[in-house]
Specification:
- It is a single chain.
- The protein contains ten helices and eleven strands.
- By secondary structure, the chain is an alpha+beta fold.
- The protein has two domains: 14-130, Beta-Lactamase; 137-343, Heat Shock Protein 90 (2-Layer Sandwich).
- The strands form two sheets. Strands 1, 2, 3, 4, 5 and 6 form a six-stranded antiparallel beta sheet that branches. A five-stranded mixed beta sheet has the order 7-8-9-11-10.
- The longest helix is centred in the middle third of the chain and has 48 residues, at 132-179.
Amino acid sequence: MRSLRYRAGMMSSALTEKLARAVIERSPDGLVICDQNGVITYVNDELTTMSGYGANELIGQLVEVLVPADAIAGHPHLRDGFVVSNASRPMGPSGNVRLRHCDGSEVSVAVALSTIHDASGRSVVASVRDISERMDQERRLQLSNEALALAAERERIARDLHDTVLQHLFALGLEMQALEMVVDESLATRLSSAVDQIDHAIREIRTTVFTLGSAQRHGSFGQEIQDIVRQAVRVLGFTPRLVIDGAAELLVPANVRIELFAALREALGNVARHAHATETLVEIRVDQDLMVTVDDNGVGIDEQSIGRGNGLGNLAARAHGLGGTFDIRAKAGGGTRLTWRVPV
Protein backbone atom coordinates (compact mmCIF):
# COMPACT_ATOMS: atom_id res chain seq x y z
CA MET A 1 0.00 0.00 0.00
CA ARG A 2 2.81 2.40 0.94
CA SER A 3 4.55 1.59 -2.35
CA LEU A 4 1.39 2.42 -4.31
CA ARG A 5 1.03 5.73 -2.50
CA TYR A 6 4.71 6.55 -3.26
CA ARG A 7 4.26 5.79 -6.95
CA ALA A 8 1.04 7.88 -7.06
CA GLY A 9 2.88 10.76 -5.42
CA MET A 10 5.69 10.51 -7.97
CA MET A 11 3.15 10.53 -10.83
CA SER A 12 1.38 13.54 -9.28
CA SER A 13 4.70 15.35 -8.94
CA ALA A 14 5.60 14.57 -12.54
CA LEU A 15 2.24 15.78 -13.81
CA THR A 16 2.55 18.96 -11.81
CA GLU A 17 6.00 19.63 -13.26
CA LYS A 18 4.77 18.88 -16.76
CA LEU A 19 1.76 21.14 -16.28
CA ALA A 20 3.93 23.94 -14.88
CA ARG A 21 6.27 23.74 -17.87
CA ALA A 22 3.31 23.83 -20.26
CA VAL A 23 1.89 26.89 -18.47
CA ILE A 24 5.25 28.65 -18.67
CA GLU A 25 5.79 27.81 -22.33
CA ARG A 26 2.28 28.87 -23.35
CA SER A 27 2.07 31.95 -21.17
CA PRO A 28 0.78 35.06 -22.99
CA ASP A 29 3.58 36.97 -21.25
CA GLY A 30 7.24 36.65 -22.02
CA LEU A 31 9.33 35.02 -19.30
CA VAL A 32 13.08 35.33 -18.89
CA ILE A 33 15.15 33.84 -16.06
CA CYS A 34 18.63 35.14 -15.25
CA ASP A 35 21.18 34.07 -12.69
CA GLN A 36 22.41 36.53 -10.09
CA ASN A 37 25.07 37.77 -12.52
CA GLY A 38 22.47 38.71 -15.14
CA VAL A 39 23.16 35.78 -17.49
CA ILE A 40 20.02 34.48 -19.20
CA THR A 41 19.32 30.83 -18.34
CA TYR A 42 15.80 30.45 -19.73
CA VAL A 43 13.30 32.19 -22.05
CA ASN A 44 9.86 31.02 -23.12
CA ASP A 45 8.38 31.12 -26.62
CA GLU A 46 6.54 34.40 -26.09
CA LEU A 47 9.75 36.16 -25.11
CA THR A 48 11.52 34.94 -28.25
CA THR A 49 8.57 36.12 -30.35
CA MET A 50 8.60 39.50 -28.62
CA SER A 51 12.35 40.01 -28.99
CA GLY A 52 12.91 38.39 -32.37
CA TYR A 53 15.81 36.29 -30.97
CA GLY A 54 15.87 32.52 -30.88
CA ALA A 55 16.17 30.85 -27.46
CA ASN A 56 19.66 29.59 -28.30
CA GLU A 57 20.71 33.16 -29.17
CA LEU A 58 19.59 34.50 -25.78
CA ILE A 59 20.60 31.76 -23.34
CA GLY A 60 24.09 32.49 -22.07
CA GLN A 61 23.89 36.21 -22.95
CA LEU A 62 23.70 39.01 -20.41
CA VAL A 63 20.16 40.29 -20.02
CA GLU A 64 21.36 43.68 -21.28
CA VAL A 65 20.99 42.25 -24.78
CA LEU A 66 17.27 43.01 -24.30
CA VAL A 67 17.79 46.48 -22.81
CA PRO A 68 17.55 49.62 -25.02
CA ALA A 69 20.93 51.08 -25.96
CA ASP A 70 20.44 54.28 -23.98
CA ALA A 71 19.78 52.31 -20.76
CA ILE A 72 22.49 49.64 -20.98
CA ALA A 73 25.18 51.59 -19.10
CA GLY A 74 23.13 51.95 -15.92
CA HIS A 75 21.30 48.64 -16.05
CA PRO A 76 23.90 46.37 -14.32
CA HIS A 77 23.84 48.64 -11.27
CA LEU A 78 20.05 48.48 -11.13
CA ARG A 79 20.12 44.71 -11.66
CA ASP A 80 22.63 44.15 -8.86
CA GLY A 81 20.62 46.33 -6.52
CA PHE A 82 17.49 44.29 -7.16
CA VAL A 83 19.30 40.99 -6.49
CA VAL A 84 20.62 42.33 -3.20
CA SER A 85 17.17 43.59 -2.14
CA ASN A 86 15.75 40.10 -2.70
CA ALA A 87 12.30 41.58 -3.34
CA SER A 88 9.53 41.21 -5.88
CA ARG A 89 8.13 44.27 -7.60
CA PRO A 90 6.45 45.53 -10.75
CA MET A 91 8.46 47.78 -13.02
CA GLY A 92 7.39 50.35 -15.58
CA PRO A 93 3.61 50.35 -15.21
CA SER A 94 3.45 53.63 -17.16
CA GLY A 95 5.12 52.19 -20.23
CA ASN A 96 8.49 53.85 -19.65
CA VAL A 97 10.22 50.47 -19.82
CA ARG A 98 11.21 49.19 -23.25
CA LEU A 99 12.51 45.91 -24.61
CA ARG A 100 15.04 46.00 -27.46
CA HIS A 101 14.15 43.88 -30.47
CA CYS A 102 16.88 42.08 -32.36
CA ASP A 103 16.50 44.60 -35.24
CA GLY A 104 17.22 47.51 -32.88
CA SER A 105 13.62 48.67 -32.60
CA GLU A 106 12.00 48.97 -29.17
CA VAL A 107 8.78 47.62 -27.70
CA SER A 108 6.92 49.22 -24.78
CA VAL A 109 6.59 46.62 -22.04
CA ALA A 110 5.40 46.17 -18.47
CA VAL A 111 7.79 44.06 -16.38
CA ALA A 112 7.26 42.24 -13.08
CA LEU A 113 10.38 40.98 -11.26
CA SER A 114 10.79 38.31 -8.60
CA THR A 115 13.64 36.24 -7.13
CA ILE A 116 13.77 32.48 -6.66
CA HIS A 117 16.23 30.22 -4.84
CA ASP A 118 17.24 26.72 -5.92
CA ALA A 119 20.25 24.43 -5.72
CA SER A 120 22.17 26.58 -8.20
CA GLY A 121 21.67 29.77 -6.16
CA ARG A 122 19.56 32.87 -6.57
CA SER A 123 17.85 33.69 -9.87
CA VAL A 124 15.68 36.53 -11.12
CA VAL A 125 12.46 35.88 -13.02
CA ALA A 126 11.09 38.64 -15.24
CA SER A 127 7.55 38.50 -16.60
CA VAL A 128 7.38 40.76 -19.66
CA ARG A 129 4.12 41.94 -21.23
CA ASP A 130 3.94 43.76 -24.57
CA ILE A 131 1.88 46.91 -23.98
CA SER A 132 2.79 48.74 -27.19
CA GLU A 133 -0.78 48.51 -28.50
CA ARG A 134 -2.17 49.86 -25.24
CA MET A 135 0.37 52.68 -25.25
CA ASP A 136 -0.53 53.49 -28.84
CA GLN A 137 -4.21 53.67 -27.91
CA GLU A 138 -3.39 55.91 -24.96
CA ARG A 139 -1.35 58.20 -27.21
CA ARG A 140 -4.20 58.39 -29.71
CA LEU A 141 -6.64 59.14 -26.89
CA GLN A 142 -4.33 61.86 -25.57
CA LEU A 143 -4.05 63.39 -29.05
CA SER A 144 -7.84 63.27 -29.43
CA ASN A 145 -8.31 65.00 -26.07
CA GLU A 146 -5.76 67.64 -27.01
CA ALA A 147 -7.49 68.15 -30.37
CA LEU A 148 -10.86 68.56 -28.64
CA ALA A 149 -9.38 71.05 -26.19
CA LEU A 150 -7.79 72.97 -29.06
CA ALA A 151 -11.06 72.96 -31.02
CA ALA A 152 -12.93 74.30 -27.98
CA GLU A 153 -10.36 77.07 -27.54
CA ARG A 154 -10.50 77.94 -31.22
CA GLU A 155 -14.29 78.06 -31.03
CA ARG A 156 -14.09 80.45 -28.08
CA ILE A 157 -11.63 82.72 -29.89
CA ALA A 158 -13.79 82.71 -33.02
CA ARG A 159 -16.88 83.57 -30.99
CA ASP A 160 -15.09 86.40 -29.20
CA LEU A 161 -13.82 87.82 -32.48
CA HIS A 162 -17.28 87.71 -34.00
CA ASP A 163 -19.09 89.16 -31.01
CA THR A 164 -16.73 92.06 -30.38
CA VAL A 165 -14.15 93.04 -33.00
CA LEU A 166 -16.23 92.35 -36.09
CA GLN A 167 -19.29 94.17 -34.84
CA HIS A 168 -17.29 97.25 -33.88
CA LEU A 169 -15.53 97.35 -37.24
CA PHE A 170 -18.79 96.88 -39.10
CA ALA A 171 -20.49 99.69 -37.21
CA LEU A 172 -17.49 101.96 -37.79
CA GLY A 173 -17.59 101.24 -41.51
CA LEU A 174 -21.27 102.10 -41.76
CA GLU A 175 -20.75 105.33 -39.82
CA MET A 176 -17.97 106.35 -42.19
CA GLN A 177 -20.10 105.51 -45.21
CA ALA A 178 -22.83 107.79 -43.83
CA LEU A 179 -20.30 110.60 -43.43
CA GLU A 180 -19.38 110.35 -47.13
CA MET A 181 -22.76 111.88 -47.97
CA VAL A 182 -22.17 115.11 -46.00
CA VAL A 183 -18.50 115.96 -46.57
CA ASP A 184 -16.65 117.48 -49.50
CA GLU A 185 -15.33 115.33 -52.33
CA SER A 186 -11.70 115.16 -51.19
CA LEU A 187 -12.64 114.00 -47.69
CA ALA A 188 -15.23 111.61 -49.12
CA THR A 189 -12.47 109.97 -51.15
CA ARG A 190 -10.38 109.50 -48.03
CA LEU A 191 -13.36 108.12 -46.15
CA SER A 192 -14.06 105.70 -48.99
CA SER A 193 -10.46 104.49 -48.85
CA ALA A 194 -10.71 104.03 -45.08
CA VAL A 195 -13.95 102.05 -45.51
CA ASP A 196 -12.19 99.82 -48.04
CA GLN A 197 -9.43 99.17 -45.50
CA ILE A 198 -11.98 98.35 -42.80
CA ASP A 199 -13.70 96.03 -45.25
CA HIS A 200 -10.40 94.29 -45.92
CA ALA A 201 -9.79 93.90 -42.19
CA ILE A 202 -13.27 92.43 -41.74
CA ARG A 203 -12.60 89.92 -44.52
CA GLU A 204 -9.33 88.88 -42.90
CA ILE A 205 -10.95 88.47 -39.49
CA ARG A 206 -13.86 86.52 -40.95
CA THR A 207 -11.37 84.21 -42.62
CA THR A 208 -9.77 83.67 -39.22
CA VAL A 209 -13.17 83.11 -37.60
CA PHE A 210 -14.12 80.43 -40.08
CA THR A 211 -10.69 78.84 -39.82
CA LEU A 212 -10.68 78.73 -36.03
CA GLY A 213 -14.32 78.18 -35.27
CA SER A 214 -16.91 75.77 -36.59
CA ALA A 215 -18.55 77.20 -39.68
CA GLN A 216 -21.37 74.72 -39.12
CA ARG A 217 -22.57 75.99 -35.74
CA HIS A 218 -26.36 75.85 -35.59
CA GLY A 219 -27.79 79.25 -36.47
CA SER A 220 -24.44 80.87 -37.26
CA PHE A 221 -25.33 81.80 -40.86
CA GLY A 222 -28.68 83.34 -39.95
CA GLN A 223 -27.14 85.11 -36.98
CA GLU A 224 -24.43 86.65 -39.17
CA ILE A 225 -27.01 87.94 -41.66
CA GLN A 226 -29.28 89.30 -38.92
CA ASP A 227 -26.34 91.08 -37.32
CA ILE A 228 -25.49 92.79 -40.60
CA VAL A 229 -29.10 93.86 -41.16
CA ARG A 230 -29.40 95.08 -37.57
CA GLN A 231 -26.23 97.15 -37.86
CA ALA A 232 -27.50 98.72 -41.10
CA VAL A 233 -30.49 100.22 -39.28
CA ARG A 234 -28.18 102.91 -37.86
CA VAL A 235 -27.47 104.43 -41.29
CA LEU A 236 -30.68 103.48 -43.12
CA GLY A 237 -33.03 104.88 -40.48
CA PHE A 238 -35.32 101.85 -40.76
CA THR A 239 -35.10 98.08 -40.44
CA PRO A 240 -34.75 96.15 -43.72
CA ARG A 241 -36.97 93.10 -44.16
CA LEU A 242 -35.03 89.84 -44.37
CA VAL A 243 -36.02 86.61 -46.11
CA ILE A 244 -33.78 83.51 -46.14
CA ASP A 245 -34.98 80.63 -48.29
CA GLY A 246 -33.11 77.31 -48.51
CA ALA A 247 -30.60 75.35 -46.43
CA ALA A 248 -28.03 78.14 -46.38
CA GLU A 249 -26.49 76.85 -43.15
CA LEU A 250 -25.57 73.56 -44.82
CA LEU A 251 -25.05 74.57 -48.46
CA VAL A 252 -23.06 77.81 -48.32
CA PRO A 253 -19.34 77.10 -47.76
CA ALA A 254 -17.19 79.27 -45.54
CA ASN A 255 -15.31 81.05 -48.34
CA VAL A 256 -18.60 82.07 -50.00
CA ARG A 257 -20.00 83.29 -46.68
CA ILE A 258 -17.05 85.63 -46.22
CA GLU A 259 -17.70 87.28 -49.60
CA LEU A 260 -21.49 87.27 -49.12
CA PHE A 261 -21.36 89.07 -45.79
CA ALA A 262 -19.00 91.73 -47.16
CA ALA A 263 -21.17 92.12 -50.29
CA LEU A 264 -24.35 92.53 -48.25
CA ARG A 265 -22.72 95.18 -46.08
CA GLU A 266 -21.62 97.02 -49.23
CA ALA A 267 -25.09 96.74 -50.77
CA LEU A 268 -26.89 98.12 -47.69
CA GLY A 269 -24.32 100.89 -47.40
CA ASN A 270 -25.02 101.76 -51.04
CA VAL A 271 -28.75 102.00 -50.29
CA ALA A 272 -28.03 104.30 -47.35
CA ARG A 273 -25.79 106.61 -49.42
CA HIS A 274 -27.80 106.95 -52.61
CA ALA A 275 -31.33 105.51 -52.56
CA HIS A 276 -33.18 107.79 -50.11
CA ALA A 277 -35.34 104.75 -49.48
CA THR A 278 -37.84 104.05 -46.72
CA GLU A 279 -38.09 100.31 -47.29
CA THR A 280 -35.60 97.61 -48.29
CA LEU A 281 -36.07 93.89 -48.79
CA VAL A 282 -33.09 91.54 -48.49
CA GLU A 283 -33.72 88.09 -49.96
CA ILE A 284 -31.23 85.22 -49.76
CA ARG A 285 -32.16 82.08 -51.67
CA VAL A 286 -30.07 78.93 -51.90
CA ASP A 287 -30.62 76.16 -54.43
CA GLN A 288 -28.14 75.35 -57.18
CA ASP A 289 -26.84 78.90 -56.69
CA LEU A 290 -26.75 81.39 -53.88
CA MET A 291 -28.76 84.44 -54.97
CA VAL A 292 -28.94 87.63 -52.94
CA THR A 293 -31.28 90.46 -53.91
CA VAL A 294 -31.49 93.86 -52.24
CA ASP A 295 -34.67 95.63 -53.30
CA ASP A 296 -35.39 99.24 -52.24
CA ASN A 297 -38.15 101.79 -52.92
CA GLY A 298 -35.81 104.73 -53.34
CA VAL A 299 -35.15 107.11 -56.19
CA GLY A 300 -33.66 104.47 -58.46
CA ILE A 301 -30.14 104.24 -59.78
CA ASP A 302 -28.90 106.44 -62.59
CA GLU A 303 -27.88 104.09 -65.38
CA GLN A 304 -25.02 106.45 -66.24
CA SER A 305 -23.44 105.95 -62.81
CA ILE A 306 -23.29 102.16 -62.96
CA GLY A 307 -19.66 101.01 -62.89
CA ARG A 308 -18.26 104.29 -61.64
CA GLY A 309 -18.30 103.78 -57.88
CA ASN A 310 -15.88 101.69 -55.85
CA GLY A 311 -18.74 100.05 -53.99
CA LEU A 312 -20.41 98.60 -57.07
CA GLY A 313 -17.02 97.58 -58.42
CA ASN A 314 -16.32 95.69 -55.21
CA LEU A 315 -19.67 93.91 -55.40
CA ALA A 316 -18.99 92.85 -58.98
CA ALA A 317 -15.44 91.72 -58.17
CA ARG A 318 -16.62 89.58 -55.25
CA ALA A 319 -19.20 87.83 -57.43
CA HIS A 320 -16.86 87.32 -60.39
CA GLY A 321 -14.13 86.00 -58.08
CA LEU A 322 -16.46 83.15 -57.11
CA GLY A 323 -17.58 82.47 -60.68
CA GLY A 324 -20.85 84.36 -60.26
CA THR A 325 -22.64 87.44 -61.60
CA PHE A 326 -23.66 90.87 -60.37
CA ASP A 327 -26.43 93.11 -61.65
CA ILE A 328 -28.01 96.38 -60.50
CA ARG A 329 -30.78 98.27 -62.24
CA ALA A 330 -33.62 100.70 -61.65
CA LYS A 331 -37.10 99.20 -61.31
CA ALA A 332 -39.92 100.35 -63.52
CA GLY A 333 -42.09 101.46 -60.62
CA GLY A 334 -39.25 103.21 -58.80
CA GLY A 335 -36.45 102.00 -56.65
CA THR A 336 -33.45 99.79 -57.37
CA ARG A 337 -32.86 96.03 -57.44
CA LEU A 338 -29.39 94.63 -56.83
CA THR A 339 -28.77 90.95 -57.63
CA TRP A 340 -25.66 89.09 -56.49
CA ARG A 341 -25.45 85.43 -57.57
CA VAL A 342 -22.71 82.82 -57.10
CA PRO A 343 -22.57 79.02 -57.42
CA VAL A 344 -22.46 76.83 -54.31
